[in-house]
Amino acid sequence: MPDVNCAHMVAVALVKGAVSFVDSHDTALMRDPQILAQRAKVKVVADSALNDPAAPRGARVDVTLTDGRTLSHTTRFPPGTKVNPLSVEGVNEKARDLMSPVLGSKRTEQLIERINHLETVNNIGELRALFKA
Predict the structure, then answer these.
(1) Which H/E stretch holds residue 75?
(2) Which end of the chain has fewer CB atoms surrounding its CB within 10 Å, N or C?
């Protein structure tokens, strides 16, 4: 299952620059030669130091460059968690990623705009047409 395969998700991000919801469920990408070449370079290692009940979704990424240097980044609280909530634009980007494939870009943008200004909607029923797939 691509969405739960960490090495695969890292490889997709390396090849595509980002991972969309569609990408994370695309089983065909698991056989893509470009993705497979990058995935062969990824090693997933459990780290008991990350078993922190206060930060259960924390992670660390170490990248070894071709010149031998290692870069490391730890995220204790990823975006979208209680401690590190998404910004309005972050929520909008996530909504675009999830809704555009179903509703199309135009309706997705209209819906995001209306919801971001919900206090100006006189009748919530007006949104119904934007939700229809």
Answers:
(1) strand 70-75
(2) C
Domain ranges of the chain: 1-44, 46-84, 88-131
Neighbouring CB atoms inside 10 A of 103's CB total 19
Residue 8: CB atoms within 10 A of its CB come to 22
Contact between residue 29 and residue 37 where contact means Cβ atoms under 8 Å apart: no
**Which own/partner contact pairs does 80-88 have at CB distance under 8 Å and 24+ positions apart?**
81/57, 83/55, 88/116
Cα(62)–Cα(1) distance, rounded to whole angstroms? 24
Instruction: Report the pLDDT averaged over residues 44-59.
Output: 92
Strands 59-64 and 70-75: antiparallel
Cα gap 25→2, rounded to integer Å? 6
